[in-house]
Design goal:
4 helices, Immunoglobulin-like, mainly beta
């Protein structure tokens, strides 16, 4: 029996249903056999898949068996809105698509059998020639089983920005204001509003990213965004954290670990809605795969069912999700909490690889796709958040969007 069938027998919480969303997630899969999709820039685990042209990005994932699968990869250049660019493959790709993934290794002494696959871009077969957005498809027998999105930047110094708790909504309250400027001196820009495109993201989230906000004013070769209501973000709270780095010892926020033949289960301490700012040394949503007795975490860390529980009355007219970088920005049924009237709590079970995780709860009102932190986490201006700004440029007559500058700031 394949793993996905066994999982369905163990828990219905892992059923794979993928509704259409209006934002571009960092990665995704429709296969119950694919787990732990990661993209790391130059080996740094606290990184979004946004790299300079001369840096490497390592993509990895697990196929949940010890059977070899001939996976291939295909790369597509995209515009600033993640639609396929109108350029030929030879214009952005030095090499050929549909190359096999040749780095793979079986897991060792784990309850879940899996095979770890790894791919680095650039490599001896493929090198990318243009900056911009890219989609990397993982395929088997010509069918896509997973995908990654990533960005390559020209690393020009054209952005400045700051973050403040003083906003036009409130002063030292629940929101954070991003002020920024774009220096386009030296570029062949005639109409900045049509030729420049900016994206601002908070903690790598794709659901609440701000696309191409309107500048406050254009001072000639410089766009300024000051006190822009479009760039006011709910501040949220520090991420919650848990660690499962050993099956025989309890670590942060783990109530108990149990073994139900043939798999391990970790039940987290019951969470409550927050009514005040709670300082913590979190990692702004990132997670680290780790087994504290392993020499190779990628192949020796085991999988286990992690049970989340949030004690709160039932909420109406919306859906509640558990979120972090482990979800790739996805807000769908895989990460949706279900209300249990017996325990009077929202519950969710995820199959995760051993490690240290950040997470938060997001409420999505009915008919919307943007997650809200206010209802469960609260919004507090003191919260330490990470903001990423992407600046794209499409020169007149060009058929693709260059990513010319990237800036990452923390408040």
């Amino acid at each position: 029996m394949r793993l996905c069938d066994r999982i369905k027998r163990l828990t219905s919480a892992l059923a794979i249903l993928w509704p259409v969303v209006t934002y571009a997630q960092w990665f995704g899969t429709e296969s119950g056999q694919i787990g732990t999709l990661r993209a790391m820039v130059s080996g740094e685990w606290q990184s979004l898949p946004v790299a300079d042209m001369d840096q490497t990005i390592e993509f990895s994932f697990d196929e949940m068996s010890h059977e070899y699968h001939r996976f291939t990869y295909r790369i597509q250049h995209c515009d600033a809105r993640w639609n396929p660019s109108d350029i030929l493959e030879s214009e952005f790709l030095d090499g050929f698509n549909d190359q096999p993934i040749e780095e793979w290794e079986n897991s060792l002494l784990t309850t879940f059998d899996y095979t770890h696959y790894r791919l680095t871009i650039p490599n001896s077969e493929v090198r990318l020639k243009l900056s911009g957005n890219y989609r990397l498809s993982i395929c088997e027998d010509g069918r896509e089983v997973a995908y990654f999105r990533f960005c390559l930047s020209e690393n020009a110094n054209r952005l400045t920005a700051s973050v403040s708790g003083n906003t036009d909504i409130d002063s030292h309250g629940s929101h954070q204001q991003v002020n920024m400027s774009v220096n386009y001196a030296g570029l062949s820009v005639i109409n900045p509003e049509r030729e420049l495109y900016t994206v601002v993201m908070q903690n790598g989230r794709t659901d609440n990213a701000v696309h191409n906000p309107t500048p406050t004013y254009d001072a000639g070769n410089r766009l300024t965004y000051e006190h822009s209501r479009e760039l006011i973000f709910p501040a949220g709270n520090e991420f919650r954290r848990f660690e499962v780095v050993n099956m025989y010892e309890y670590y942060m926020n783990v109530d108990r670990i149990s073994f139900h033949d043939p798999f391990y289960h970790a039940t987290l301490s019951e969470d409550l809605p927050r009514h005040a700012y709670q300082f913590d040394y979190d990692h702004n949503g990132y997670y680290l795969v780790r087994y504290n007795q392993a020499s190779d975490h990628d192949t020796e860390a085991d999988y286990l069912f992690v049970h989340f529980s949030l004690k709160t009355p039932r909420l109406d007219d919306g859906r509640l999700y558990v979120s972090g970088h482990f979800s790739g920005g996805n807000l769908n049924s895989r990460y949706e909490m279900e209300y249990n009237p017996d325990s009077k709590a929202y519950e969710c079970t995820l199959l995760l690889k051993q490690g240290a995780y950040d997470y938060e709860y997001l409420w999505v009102p009915e008919g919307e796709s943007k997650g809200q932190t206010k209802l469960i986490e609260g919004d507090w201006y003191e919260t330490k958040n990470e903001y990423l700004i992407l600046l794209y440029f499409r020169e007149r007559g060009s058929r693709y969007d260059r990513l010319i500058s990237v800036l990452e700031i923390e408040n």
